[in-house]
Amino acid sequence: MAADNRYEEEEEVRTDDGSPITKPRPIVRLGIFLVAHSPVFSVVFSAAGVLALLLLPLLAKNTYISENALMPGSARSMLSNRDASDGSKLVKDIKNFRLNHEGQGVEVQRLIGKYMSEMVAEVYYQKFQPEGNQFHPLHFFSGPASYTLLGNVSCASYGVNVVGIIRAPRGDGKESIVLVTPYDFINGGDYEDLSLGIVSSLFSLLSRVTWLSKDIIWLVADSRYGDYRPVAAWLAEYHTPSFKVSDLLKCDELNTADNFRRAGTVAAALILKVDGRSERFEDILSIYADASNGQMPNLDLINVVNYLAVHRQGFHVKVEKVVSLLSSSWLKIVGEIFEAVGKVANTLNPDWKFGIPAAEYIEGSATLASSLYSQALGIPTGPHGAFRDYQVDAITLKISPGFPPDSKARQHDFFLRGSQLLEGTIRSVNNLLEKFHQSFFLYVLTSPSKFISVGVYMIAFALLVASLPMVAASLYVDGCKALTKSTHNSAENFKSWKWLDAAKQVFALHLLGFIVTLLPYFICQVPGQHSPRNRSIMWGTTSSLLLVTFVTIPGCSPFSSRLHGTNWAILKSVTISAAFIGLCLMSIINFATAEIGALLLVPTCLLAQPIKPALRSRRVKSLLGAFCSMVLVTIGFPVIFFAITKGLVGEGLVGLSLGGEFWTWLESLWAWKSATYLYIGMVHLPCWLLCVCILFHPS
Amino acid sequence: MKEKKKDDGEMAEELEKNSYRFWIWSIASMIFRFCIILFPENINLSSRPELSTPLTSLCRLAEGYWLKQASMSPYSGSMYHGSPLLLSLLGPLTVHGIEGQWNHHLCSLVFVVSDILSAVLLRATGQQLEKAYRLNLRRLGLLKASRDRGILPCGDIAALVYLWNPFTILSCVGLSTSPIENLAVIVSLYGAVTRRVPLAAFGLIMATHLSLYPATLVIPLIFLLGYGLDAPPRKLFLQTRDREGEPGQDKLTRTTQLPFLWKTVLHFVFWVLVWSIYVLVLCSLSLKQYGGLEEMFKRTYGFILNIEDLSPNIGVFWYFFAEAFDFSRNYFLIVFQIYMFLSILLPLARRLKHRPCFIAFVYLAFSSILKSYPSVGDAALYLSLWALFVNELTDMKHSFFIFCGYIGFSLLSPVMHNLWIWRGTGNANFYYANAMGYACFQFMFVEESVSAMLNHDQALKKATAEMTKN
User: So where does this one cross the membrane (chain A) (predicted)?
Assistant: First the structure.
């Protein structure tokens, strides 16, 4: 699609030379036609883009198991009541231990370790430190190997992971499957114990079975410092062994030196969490899959879990959705319209089956919105995100049991079902000879069993941005003509280089955006404790000072009006091209960010026009245009957009507290190495500034 | 006369101002490079496939040097594939380090200096070309005043384009040896333009020795030495002379071909032989115990022509030869390597023989597209050579479109690489698609430049014809 658009642009430049073209090819004529009517087509394409986005839940396909080797559910479960009672025993022991021993130490870890070694597993403990908040915006482009260890180690705060490995009787020790149970050893609740119970039931089975060909690693992650950090620390040590002896090892009586064991390449990882009781009577299984920067695990892994959970164990499976959308009336109307259209289409030709019931549509859109939101943020939704950095497919399964934690009878059944689910999944992954590769990596979910693949959702984005190169080309032609008219002699020499001045301005503002993006690094280095609010004030003042300096430097100033300088049409054309390149790049890095960014940036860029002539002309149409562009530019400023989103969610924020909130939000973005931060700083902000320049252009 | 003197005075003033600005900008570019070199912590540029190829990577050179120090052939283990002379030159600089880690600052210094040298030589070349351009226009009668504001100082522009091109800066601070290869090429062009025959021969031999592909420059260099600097087609001058009313001139001059200075060219060939023997002797001395020249030819030129290393780069061959069947590999190798010679070199040499420097640009651009192991350093070289012709190429078409394409694809390259290597959600096709898109835009760039140059010649022809009529 992008290539086509470029074609159009190319053809346009060809026409501007005025050289007669003898019978252009059809595609060239099409391009010229599109560019000549760019205002109409840009409206049509943008509307089609938004419509396609709304249509996405309709276009979702049912998931299917793509890799034949997985064969989920084909083997009978070998899990017995004995295994489940093993799990119950561990849970009971931990509870009793908790009652008798209040507080500190690593006794609970030792207890779990003892259980593991009773099941003939190799057990070791790993110490790790909670990581500080570091600013590495360019981390995105490098691999996980460039992790830097913290220099100073304090014994005051550190966590201890317990890891048990079962060696596979049929394996060669080169591959493994990881099970993770985040567990707070100090103040874990009753529900958290249940996750240990499920995995220990499974572990007791796996220590006996003969079919295992991949080693099984059970990581009990110390979740005192969040779920993510312990898993990331364990993975970092697993994949990049450091030969320096960490000072952390000397901290405690628990000696963890020299006993870190490995079990080969990790084929897949399952993170199991049990938390709060579900509202329903049945047990609910929620699947979380989004890793950093909108990366998803292979769809087959989700399929296997979903298939087993629904068809074998009878869990109610769900994925996250935006609850507030479920009751929104406009979505309901849209859904009903689509339903009616689908019905009409069905009467015309029974083979056309694209209509879905309105309720399903609303459900799908709410899930889609949630997926898009979490992908756009670029922040992983759980510890599975740490695995994605090492190209391991991982998902988090969060089970909400439908019974109170002290109900013994149902607990046993719960353990049986939970560990049978895990057993089936492990058995499927165990069958694999290669990495997961058969199914999709790029998709969004609209329900646990429905997905939209990259080929479909890219259409919505492509339609949305398709108008950019068209409008850029037509503006370029207009601008060139205007320039040639206004300057007769000097422009003659630079027929095709008139855009250089505009490009210089665009480059200057992008450079400014880059500097502003890097500023927080220096602000974080400022000595002393500062509240987020103060930091954001510092950031704001330095950025605006920089902007003022940029504007006053002659040559880069976008506001300077020189006789032979740029006219706004060319400036807008170059701006739109820059926005187009930035959005296309971002759509490859993280589709969701690009889609949301395009929804904001495309109308802003397209409607930006100098308001001076509009005010002068006093015609309703141009006044309305100026008003629209003003509104769009106001909304487009990142801080204001953030405030509006917060307002929609229901948290009213004004004034300085907004700055603090915004800073905290950005801090979370760069702490998670989200490319969205780079996008905001290096694409959105400069393009927004350029739109402001165009608005106030003295033309 | 008086007026002319005044003009000259003004011109000199302007020139001084220009050169003042030039030096400020070049020093700024030097400082910028040092800044990046001194803060390399987070940006591990030397491992980027866009910057360092198996031929130009300094890490490989350090490895080769280490092997040689350990009395082993520097070529053993298929790590190093560069010149043995470069090994003796840069090798010692790679070992001086602190705490076991080799220190790249000294090497970076060498690269910065070579960049500056290249820029200065480019500037001198450009000044010669600009002078020739003025002279030719005046001889055609198209330039009335002795100074024309419309003519750009192409030397300064080319030098600054070279110094501030992100490609040059990245390959300079990214520890690849391409700044030195580029310097050799520019030296040869400078030598030919200023008619320093031994220097031209030396540059050509060094460039060929370092990266083989500049061997094609022998054609433009011979044209440069034989016919002189870039000029409009010879026919135009004859027309003008007709117009100026010299009917007494015998018809002989009209029909004569261009005078070809055989003597200079022979001189050049002689020096080429001298330098090549010199370089070969030095190489054989340096590789005496490790297999001698045969080993060197096999491991450097053989490595380039056989495309042995199929690790991803921004070229178009690695993917193809990774996919090609073994039995057809030799056939495709021959076809691809000869394609350049047959279909590009000779026709262009015929069509553009009155513009030898421009031919050099086109050859370098083509070799940068069709090279076995291209890097962005090659693009930096031909882009700055292109800037030598800003006066002729003002009417280049699609310039904005090509510019956007270059920017888009060079930003896309690390993204695709990341998607493939680190995230695992993409595959080799993603990166290769990017390489093909990049190659496409390079082709388009060269094609547009050549057609703009031909159009320029046409326009000159038209203008002279009109003048003759009047």
Answer: 30-56, 454-477, 506-524, 536-554, 574-602, 623-644, 676-696
Collapsing DSSP states into helix, strand and coil, what is residue A408?
helix
Using a CB-CB cut-off of 8 Å, the residues of chain A touching B428 are: none
Query: What residues contact A149, with CB distance under 8 A and at least 6 apart?
Result: A242, A244, A246
Counts for chain A of helices (H) and strands (E), in that order: 24, 11
Is A187 strand, coil or helix? coil
Between A101-110, A198-207, A366-375, B22-31, the lowest mean confidence (pLDDT) is in A101-110
Task: Identify any residues that bridge with A285 across adjacent strands, giving them in sequence order.
Answer: A317, A399
The Cβ of residue B332 has, within 10 Å, a number of other Cβ atoms equal to: 15
Quote the tokens at residue A167: 């060696």
Q: Do A441 and B407 touch (CB under 8 A)?
A: no
In angstroms, the separation between the Cα of residue A574 and the nearest Cα of chain B is 9
Q: DSSP string covering B288-313, please?
A: GGGTHHHHHHHHTHHHHHHT------
Q: Given pLDDT bands bounded at 50, 70 and 90, which one contains residue B460?
A: confident
pLDDT of residue A105: 65
What is the average per-residue pLDDT within A464-472? Answer: 92
Question: What is the Cα–Cα distance from A254 to A222, expressed in whole angstroms?
Answer: 15
Residue A145 has pLDDT above 60, yes or no: no
How much is the average pLDDT of B402-413?
93
Name the residue facing A138 among B43, B405, B416 (closest C-beta).
B43
Taking the complete model, does pTM exceed 0.80, yes or no?
yes
Are the Cβ atoms of B400 and A142 closer than 8 angstroms? no
Residues linked to residue A288 through DSSP beta bridges, in sequence order: A396
Helix, strand, coil abundance in chain A, percent, nearest 5: 60, 10, 30
With a CB cutoff of 8 Å and minimum separation 6, the contacts of B273 are none
Distance of CA A691 to the CA centre of its chain: 27
A interface with B, Cβ–Cβ below 8 Å:
6, 9-10, 13-14, 17, 136, 138-144, 146, 295, 388, 391, 441-442, 476, 493-497, 499, 503, 574, 577, 581, 584-585, 588-589
DSSP strand E in A63-174: where? 122-128, 159-166
And the tokens for A230? 């312990």
The closest CB to that of B404, out of A577, A585, A589, belongs to: A577
Beta-carbon contacts below 8 Å between A and B? 76
Q: Which residue in the set B42, B399, B412 is minimally distant from A496, CB to CB? A: B399
Provide the pLDDT confidence category of residue A653 given band limits of 50, 70 and 90.
Answer: low
pLDDT on residue B248: 45
* Contact at CB, B44 and A146, closer than 8 angstroms: yes
- Per-residue pLDDT, averaged over B3-19, amounts to 65
Rounded-to-integer distance, Cα A554 and Cα A535, Å: 31
Place of tokens 């351009």: B133
Give CA–CA dist A280/B2, Å, rounded: 101
Question: What confidence tier does B107 reach under pLDDT thresholds 50, 70, 90?
Answer: confident
What are the tokens at A630?
Answer: 């003003």
B180/B397: higher pLDDT: B180
Residue B309, token pair as written in the block: 């290393």
Q: How many CA atoms lie within 13 A of A154 on its CB side?
A: 5
C-beta atoms of B399 and A442 within 8 A: no
Helices B105-140 and B428-469: crossing angle in degrees, nearest 10, is: 30
Are B397 and A142 within 8 A, CB to CB?
Answer: no
Q: Do A144 and B422 count as a contact with CB atoms less than 8 A apart?
A: yes
Are A581 and B398 in contact (CB < 8 Å)?
A: no
- Cα separation, A176 vs A262, in Å, equals 9
Residue A557: pLDDT over 70: no
Which residues in chain A have Cβ-Cβ distances shorter than 8 Å to B398? Answer: 10, 13-14, 496
Q: Distance (Å, rounded) from C-alpha A421 to C-alpha A195?
A: 13
